[in-house]
């Protein structure tokens, strides 16, 4: 075991690292967004998943406006230290369209097929 | 339903999109790597997951040298069209370290803990 330092991660030239959120119960992959080192620290300290919004250029505490929070269960680093995987407890829809997951469009057979409707 | 065109995806300024591979049976998240539009097309056409290697600047048919191939089960696009999720049948280890998944290091409690050993 060694102490974890968020600054030991490999960030891209914008200082960001991709973070995948996976449902800790169903194992469904919910979404992928970006974090900077401070967002990683805040996520670990608060237990509330906090991304960096590239469009708004600000911290984005998931669910702060929608109520669709992500509570961190565990955070993992990949072998290259340039990608994060988080197991989370997701309240409501992870996707801004109201769907449980952002990955609701299947394209395997040459056509785009929506796999689920928005949650009520 | 509408026909899927890989060029309708949103690529970054290097022409790449992140692609997450998830085991279609265990739902374990195995790895994240990058694709360009041609890699997406080849993956769909051949059923063999094909990334774009940023370090080698060439196509990377997963498993071509290691034997640890990824056979595509389904490919999904996220709501923003800037990330892909693939359900795959993974032969052997997904990680170049010989571990089943690249996400074998947990950092939740302030220390880095390896969750698994390399496969034999």
Automatic annotation (TrEMBL), chains A, B:
Domain Phosphoribosyl-AMP cyclohydrolase: 31-104
Record's GO cellular component terms: cytoplasm
GO BP annotations, alphabetical order: L-histidine biosynthetic process
Record localization: Cytoplasm
Pfam families: PRA-CH
Reported cofactor(s): Mg(2+); Zn(2+)
Endpoints of the signal sequence: none
Pathway(s) per entry: Amino-acid biosynthesis; L-histidine biosynthesis; L-histidine from 5-phospho-alpha-D-ribose 1-diphosphate: step 3/9; Amino-acid biosynthesis; L-histidine biosynthesis; L-histidine from 5-phospho-alpha-D-ribose 1-diphosphate: step 2/9
Broadest EC class assigned to this enzyme: hydrolase
Designated name of the protein: Phosphoribosyl-AMP cyclohydrolase
Organism from which the protein derives: Tateyamaria omphalii
Lineage: Bacteria, Pseudomonadati, Pseudomonadota, Alphaproteobacteria, Rhodobacterales
């Amino acid at each position: 075991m060694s102490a974890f330092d968020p600054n030991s991660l490999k960030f891209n030239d914008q200082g960001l690292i991709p973070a995948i959120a996976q449902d800790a119960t169903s194992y469904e992959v919910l979404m992928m967004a970006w974090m900077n080192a401070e967002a990683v620290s805040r996520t670990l300290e608060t237990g509330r998943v906090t991304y960096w919004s590239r469009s708004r250029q600000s911290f984005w505490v998931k669910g702060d406006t929608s109520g669709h929070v992500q509570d961190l269960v565990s955070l993992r680093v990949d072998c290259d230290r340039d990608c994060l995987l988080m197991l989370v407890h997701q309240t409501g829809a992870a996707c801004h369209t109201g769907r449980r997951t952002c990955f609701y469009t299947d394209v395997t057979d040459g056509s785009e097929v929506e796999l689920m409707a928005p949650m009520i």
